[in-house]
Amino acid sequence: MTILSDNRRLSSVAAPSRMLRYLPTSALIIDATIIVLIGALAVVGRRELPLFDEAASVEMSLVIAGPLILFGWLLAVALNGGYRKDVFGVGLDEFKRVLNGSLIAAGLTGVVSYLAKFDLSRGFFVLAFALGVPLLLIGRWSLRRALHAARVRGALRQRVLLVGTRAHVDETFSVLRREKWLGYQVVGALTPEWDLSEETPMGLPIVGNANEAAAMAVDAQADALFFAGGSVGSSSQLRRTVWELEKHHIDVVVAPSVSDISNERVRIRPVGGLPLMHIDPPTWSDASRWGKRTFDLLGSGMLILTFLPLLAFIALSIKAEDRGPILFRQTRTGKDGTEFACFKFRSMVVDAEARLSALYAQTGHDGGLFKMKDDPRITKPGRWLRRFSLDELPQLLNVFRGEMSLVGPRPPLPREVAEYDGDANRRLQVRPGMTGLWQVSGRSDLSFSEAIRLDLYYVDNWSMLQDLNILARTLGAVLGRNGAY
């Protein structure tokens, strides 16, 4: 493989986005604008709100103090790393830095005012920081949402070369290709010199060998180099490559051979100059404890009482359609492989199961969960019930009875469980849920293997905070009607 042919293959990919360099500046402008507006709002609020005793005007004292507070606040966020380019786009680090910098600014403002005996209005101080801190976080969140949306559309991406064996490269490539919001545009792979293949099994072009990593990164105008498993022969070789890449301001990322691990379970501990990754045990056992069960019991009970009028209306609509049964009971597999009757409002014709084999043959279904757009078995009420997932409301009874949870993996059919491999069986270690990661990530538009992957991620990385997040996202998924059929 020649350098000329490598360059031709790399030139077919879009040029790197240099707009990313303006992210810190954009964040600074947003923060400064919010702080100025909050300062003006705090002045007006201090004067107009009947919450504070002092009647004196604060405008004169803020002629000098106002700009200093503004500058000091931004400086505190900056010194705390709030405008570093590597904090944008993913993780909680960006928000932590903004929050910590704001708290430091508030503390220093109070201490300096006290020591200098400066008559800073307490009302202004409270209003400015009480309103400013959450609004700064909202501003950063809005910037991140805009960044993610741009990346999904193909803009504001970083060019990336993957280094490693073909198997390890493909593992990393599959994640980066799936999670487009991360903003990594993989332009090629570098494999060990003994590998003479022209592309990986997933079709990623191999543009050179790992020994030429630094030179190839420069030629490709790469923003980052990802080192996966089997990328280098020794740590000294990697260190020399990092030194060379440092001259060209190319980021270096080491991608270990682990995936689908939440941030909370990963800890990096340097020992003797060797960075060791510690992975905490999976949290599936926590998902079965009394705290989650109590939440399910109280939550399902309150929702049943709240939805009683809606449940009655749906029942009457189904009965009036064809005089058939209101509920559809289907055997599903729950925690530890225990089967139970899963309740749903009937959204199909009475003989839906008898027609299933004909639809299998018609669609070429070969296993897994069967979903079909414009399924001819769906009744008229069933269409709007499914569109808004109202057919699943009776599963609140399953949750109340302890057979299901509000959040968890999708309850599988026994025939699906019979086809599980060793990995998929892990999803049976927790109660199945009315909603879960699979639903808020695409619902019926997901492939069977992708739904299993999301369920396994949930089982291994459960937390109550994640449950609350999924419940909040479920409302958006239902209202958005993405993948609902």
Question: What do you see in this structure?
Answer:
With 485 residues, this protein is α/β, with parallel strands linked by helices. It is built from 17 helices and eleven strands. The protein has helices at residues 3-11, 23-48, 62-79, 93-115, 122-152, 166-178, 213-219, 235-247, 290-306, 308-322, 356-363, 380-387, 395-401, 414-418, 437-440, 448-460, 464-480; strands at residues 158-163, 184-191, 206-209, 224-227, 251-254, 266-271, 274-279, 327-333, 339-345, 405-407, 433-435. Strands 3-2-1-4-5 form a five-stranded parallel beta sheet, with helices on both faces. Helix 3 packs antiparallel against helix 4. It starts with a helix and ends in a 5-residue tail after the last helix. Residues 1-8 have low confidence and may be disordered. Belongs to the bacterial sugar transferase family. The chain crosses the membrane at residues 20-44, 56-77, 98-116, 122-143, 297-318. It is found in: Membrane. Residues 292-479 form the Bacterial sugar transferase domain.
Q: Structural class per helix/strand content?
A: alpha/beta
SSE run: HHHHHEHEEHEHEEEHHEEHHHEHEHHH
Number of helices: 17
How is the biggest beta sheet arranged?
A: 5 strands, parallel
Low-confidence stretches: 1-8
Overall spatial form = globular
Helix share bin: 40-55%
Average pLDDT for all residues: 81
What is the gyration radius calculated from CA atoms?
Answer: 28 Å
InterPro entries: Bact_transf, EPS_sugar_tfrase
Keywords: Membrane, Transferase, Transmembrane, Transmembrane helix
Main location: membrane
Domain Bacterial sugar transferase: 292-479
